[in-house]
Specification:
Layout: E1 7-10, H1 12-29, E2 36-42, H2 46-55, E3 60-72, E4 75-84, E5 94-102, H3 106-116, E6 122-130, E7 143-147, E8 153-154, E9 170-172, H4 177-186
Parallel strand pairs: 2-3, 2-5, 5-6, 6-7
Antiparallel strand pairs: 1-9, 3-4, 8-9
Bound molecules: inosinic acid (IMP) and magnesium ion (MG).
């Protein structure tokens, strides 16, 4: 852990403005379609989901899932395991998956596969941040807050070793921390 506060990548004001934009767009796209089920991926999406959901002007409800990564030795294998499922039924509902960050896209690809077999009326994805340079899974993002560089980011729900989630802005950790943090994150419950 670096001793100093992370360098700011996205300010609190910029996040707030972008969340407002996303909420406006989503409210417009789903207007008149009935209730939208927002599915948050724990733990990282909890702050984004809280802010986004309160700005939507359409009827919605909220549920959560939690995942962990399988590991081979000290390297993440890309395989993902469900550790907490939704409580509500997905069949026939309009579902919006809400993620804090998309890196390789493996987590999202797993979630999409799992939810699609439950026959939702529709399934779309909203990610606050994505590292477009690192995407390797075949996933389509419908709503994206920020395209960010390949650095380890923290704050606004995003963590390093389950710390720094509650920073109001999104910051980057020093370069030397990044590779170690990738392994640390993969070794633990994600989100
Ligand atoms: P994936 O590689 O797209 O499957 O991303 C897996 C998970 O890694 C994300 O949902 C986050 O929990 C975590 N993650 C990836 N990059 C970062 C980061 O820069 N900061 C914090 N968490 C991250
Ligand atoms: Mg996540």
């Amino acid at each position: 852990m670096p001793g100093v506060a992370p360098e700011i990548l996205i300010t609190e004001q910029a996040i707030s403005a972008r969340v407002e934009d996303l909420a406006r767009q989503i409210s417009k796209d789903y207007a008149g379609m009935g209730e939208l089920l927002l599915v948050g991926v724990l733990r990282g999406a909890f702050i984004f989901l809280a802010d986004l959901s309160r700005r939507l002007t359409i009827p919605c409800c909220v549920d959560f899932m939690a995942l962990s990564h399988y590991e081979h030795g000290s390297t993440p294998s890309g395989a993902v395991r469900l550790i907490m499922d939704l409580r509500v039924e997905v069949a026939g509902k309009h579902v919006l998956l809400v993620e804090d960050i998309v890196d390789s896209g493996d987590t999202l690809a797993y979630l999409v596969r799992m939810l699609e077999v439950r026959r939702p009326a529709s399934l779309k994805i909203c990610a606050l941040t994505w590292k477009s340079d690192r995407l390797r899974s075949d996933v389509r993002l419908d709503y994206v807050g920020f395209d960010i560089p390949d650095r380890w980011v923290v704050g606004y729900g995003l963590d390093f070793d389950n710390k720094l989630r509650t920073l109001p802005y999104i910051g980057v950790l020093d370069e030397p921390e990044a590779p170690a943090s990738r392994v640390a994150a993969a070794a633990k419950v994600l989100g």
